[in-house]
Amino acid sequence: MRLFVGIPLAAAVLAELSALCRRLQPEAHSLRWTEPETWHTTLQFLGNTGPEQYTSLVARLLELHLASVPVQLEGLGVFGSGVFIATVRRAPQLLKLQEHVVSATARCGFVPETRPYQPHITLARSKGKESRQELDKLQARIRFASNFTRFVAQEFLLYESILGPSGSHYKIHERFPLDASQGTSR
To answer: Cβ of 48: how many Cβ atoms within 10 Å?
Structure first.
């Protein structure tokens, strides 16, 4: 299984991003747009996981008792070599959740990334030179501030990424609640 840990998006944010992507797609038709049901904020990509490691992983993540996390999308941009994203504010509570997840998964043998954590939602990917040019034009057009609904994440999920000819789709394996009654993450 190819796994990752992430935060699902609230319905209002999904609707806002869907409307935005519908408006932008005609201007960037050669990009490979992701489907709303795949949108999430990754906390940690884990990669290939065997049955014993999976059992350990779930046990460690169940031990986390953390506060719910406010999530605010900040705007739109381009990440890396051609990924169109919605950026997510690096709120202290979100960073603390991500750190706890990474610490828990490290005890199961997963290696944390060396790059700084950049929370985002992948909306589209370039598929070559033509789509990279469209992405550059799109980036120039989106230099406006977007107003997205803020939400409070009540859970984080363990997803499986299943690769297919038309891209990845995700299966939820486990849900881990966040406690709204706690003031701060432990």
So the answer is: 8
Distance of CA 66 to the CA centre of its chain: 19
How many whole angstroms separate alpha carbon 55 and alpha carbon 132?
A: 41
Give tens-digit pLDDT for 62-118: 999 999 999 999 988 888 778 899 999 999 999 999 999 999 999 999 999 999 999
What is 90-149 written as a DSSP string?
--HHHHHHHHHHHHHHHTTTPPPPSSPP--EEEEEE--SHHHHHHHHHHHHHT-SPP---
Domains present along the chain, CATH in parentheses? 2-177 (3.90.1140.10)
Phi, psi for 9 (deg, rounded to 5):
-95, 150
| For helices 51-62 and 92-106, angle between their N-to-C axes, nearest 10 degrees | 140
- Quote the CA–CA distance of 117 and 44 in Å, as a whole number: 9
